[in-house]
From TrEMBL:
Listed GO MF terms: acyl-CoA hydrolase activity
Signal peptide region: none
Coiled-coil spans in chain: none
Keyword Transmembrane helix attributed: no
Protein's recorded name: Phenylacetic acid degradation protein PaaD
Membership in a protein family: Belongs to the thioesterase PaaI family.
UniProt-listed InterPro entries: Acyl-CoA_thioesterase_PaaI, HotDog_dom_sf, PaaD, PAAI_dom, Thioestr_dom
Length: 142
């Protein structure tokens, strides 16, 4: 029987526990096995010395999408490495969306690409490699 969108999933449970996402207003918009979409509105508190959104916030948003995508299967999965390429800047008031997609998952290793957009225009590209640890804090939800 299909699960309703209101039912708990590993990504929703993880998001509910994520104090960083909650404090920054990062919403989990979509989640499916190997995929996640998150969004946030950039605030004036996120601005660097150049008057634009600090790249660390763009990285954090992409990393959050990556985390929800690679943990969508249930077992604890963490980043092994990640890199980002900044293509354009963001400004306070911009609504930023990060979409993570699984590229490969073999054994305990995963590879994910995340695109951060503003109004549909790519502003950052992120690639993360994951490693699955032991245990499933979301047992029964998958």
């Amino acid at each position: 029987m299909p699960r309703s969108s209101a039912e708990a999933t590993p990504a929703k449970e993880m998001h509910a526990r994520d104090l960083t996402c909650r404090s920054l207003g990062i919403a989990l918009d979509e989640a499916a096995p190997g995929r996640a979409v998150v969004s946030m509105t950039a605030t004036a508190d996120m601005v660097n010395g150049h008057g634009i959104v600090h790249g660390g916030y763009l990285f954090l948003l992409a990393d959050a999408a990556f985390a929800f995508a690679c943990n969508s299967y249930g077992p604890v999965t963490v980043a092994q490495s990640a890199q980002v390429m900044f293509l354009r800047h963001a400004e306070p008031g911009d609504t930023l969306v990060a979409e993570a997609r699984e590229r490969s998952r073999i054994g305990r290793a995963g590879l994910y690409d995340v695109t951060v957009t503003r109004d549909g225009e790519a502003i950052a590209e992120f690639r993360g490699a994951s490693v699955t640890l032991a245990g499933n804090p979301f047992a029964g939800l998958t």
